[in-house]
Amino acid sequence: MSDTSQTQTPEFSSALFATSDKTLPILDFSRLTTGDAEGFRADLLAATHDFGFFYLTGHGIDDDLQSRVHTTIRRFFELPEEQKLAIENLKSPQFRGYTRVGGELTQGQIDWREQIDIGAERPAVPERYGEADYWRLEGPNQWPEALPELREVITEWHDRLSDVALTLMQSWAQALGADPHVFDEAFATAPSTLIKVVRYPGKSDPEPKQGVGAHKDSGVLTLLWVEPGKGGLQVENDGEWIDAPPVPGAFVVNIGELLEYATDGYLKATVHRVISPRLGDDRISIPFFYNPALDARVPQIELPAALRAEANGITQDPDNVIFATYGENSLKSRLRAHPDVAAIHHPDLLG
Q1: Strand 53-57 and strand 26-28: pairing?
Q2: 2 domain-assigned
Q3: CB atoms within 10 A of CB 86
Q4: Is 10 part of any domain?
Q5: Side-chain half-sphere of 117: how many Cα atoms within 13 Å?
Q6: Tens-place pLDDT, residues 64-98
Q7: Whole-model pTM over 0.70
Q8: DSSP string covering 149-170, please?
Q9: What is the mean pLDDT of residues 236-244?
Q10: Which domain holds residue 243?
Q11: Residue 14: what pLDDT?
Q12: Cβ-proximal residues to 181 (8 Å cutoff; 6+ apart), any chain
């Protein structure tokens, strides 16, 4: 579900399939409004402390919207190549638009997928480039002229998932012993959301390849929709890989490095990866990354004593420093994931 942060992890090997019988916990979002809010928050905290991942049901994103999004995305990937390349990300200083198969890297290795990156729709702000390099990420999206309905349905998707994500942030805050609105300010004015519309084509020679290499997400929180019946996502836990196949009606939710920062490591951003489908099959997935404004600093929570005792500090990795300001984390990830775009538009930031 890469944003993509390039935390150092073991090199991908097609022989490393799931080695654990564990399954991710399932949480029902509707418990927040049906009399069991406290129980939901306790389960939320346990799931993200123990796994960093969980399935979310009862979220209110109806089947009709999910079907419309899925159908529209399928129509995009069926377009002739020249129509997809009309919005290729190489044309965007903000790393937005279509990436052809093999055009994104994780850990320096090629991810076997094609995708569209869609961020918050705003004008570019060149007058702020001197303040911080990350302002180069603010700007417009590229939308396909051949499929105008994509913009409409993705905008609706964005708004609905943003509401779910903000409620989850408030639930985490309460579960951590803080004011429920402690995170709100970071997201209030200009959240830097990102939607990736992804297709993993089948690949076997002779085994499936790296759909997305092992990594942690660089932001706050990710909600992932996966095409029903299509597996491939794996989550690392205690040195083992857990399969995370789609659960009917559920989103897969995981935390990113900024929630690890906010809790001094009580919540840990978790390594995960995607194995590509076999030849003759493919897989659609839509990760939604809920992140604060580029210049926002996520507050560090003053944890209750019982939680503080289990907070082991932020992961120390000299190759993947976790920054408090979201824009610094995001720019680090984009430059690593798309060095070709960076070379065209931001050569001064390379090296």
Answers
A1: parallel
A2: no
A3: 16
A4: no
A5: 30
A6: 999 999 999 999 999 999 999 999 999 999 999 99
A7: yes
A8: HHHHHHHHHHHHHHHHHHHHHH
A9: 94
A10: 26-349
A11: 40
A12: 170, 173
